Amino acid sequence: MIIRTLCVFLLLQVGTVLMWDRPKFAQPGQFPHQVSIQWSLRQGSPYIHSCSGAILSEYWVITSAYCIFHIPAKSFKIKAGCHNISNTDEYTQTTGAERTIIYDKYTKLVELRDLMPYDLGLIKLQPAFIFNNRVHSIKLPRINNWFSHSYKLNYNMILSGWGSIGYTFHNANMDIMRTVNLPVVPNKVCMDSIATVNRRIELYDTQMCTRPLDGSLSACIADNGAPLIQYEDKTPVLIAILTWNWSPCNTYGIPLVYCRIDPFIKWINKQMKIN
User: Fold this and answer.
1) DSSP structure string for 203-240
2) Which residues contact 45 (CB under 8 A, 6 or more apart)?
3) Residue 80 and which of 7, 36, 111, 232 are 20 to 30 A apart at CA?
């Protein structure tokens, strides 16, 4: 994915971290809701993994608006059921985009004043995915209710994707899906940490954060739109999608910023119904 590049030279350490969780290889089929969003610069060029997304239905995928903003729908291919995105096997399904829909309040990051609080987009697929145990939709959260289970500083959030895992600007994507467990960072703590390098930035109630405040690896280039999930009674629930990460990746302990899903449930359902 494309990451907003913010060059800073301040080593930030906030609080005491008792443990680090490192990215690890996902198991094949562990995240059947996850898709690789790939696009081609021009006709005839190869398709390259740029972002992730999550399956909402046979015809719909949700992702970061940043990933699809001002890019023609016909430029995308969406792959599901894949573990190694360089390979196509019997589990892989590839489809195209009929249209893309951007949340109407979304504004692309031009000046560093906020971190795109409405960074949400939908992709309508054509043809539809065929659901099986390797390709399936994910459950949406209850409206304004995610925090009743997750507002704890423990490693109960799960992020997955094919992005780079290096401390670098370089887009060293990984072919095999990786995953990491992350703790929630309260928005006030997140704001305070970001303010040490830019006091003009504002976080909104539609956003949330996770570590690394400790500098551990978590997300990087090509992870935008990646689903952050939590399990409820062994059922995965889509809590948020990745919006923003400091660059060089994970170097300064700045938290990851996400767009929460629960404030947008009505909008999501309406768009899937009328389109």
Assistant:
1) --TTEEEE--SS------TT-TTPEEEEEETTEEEEEE
2) none
3) 232
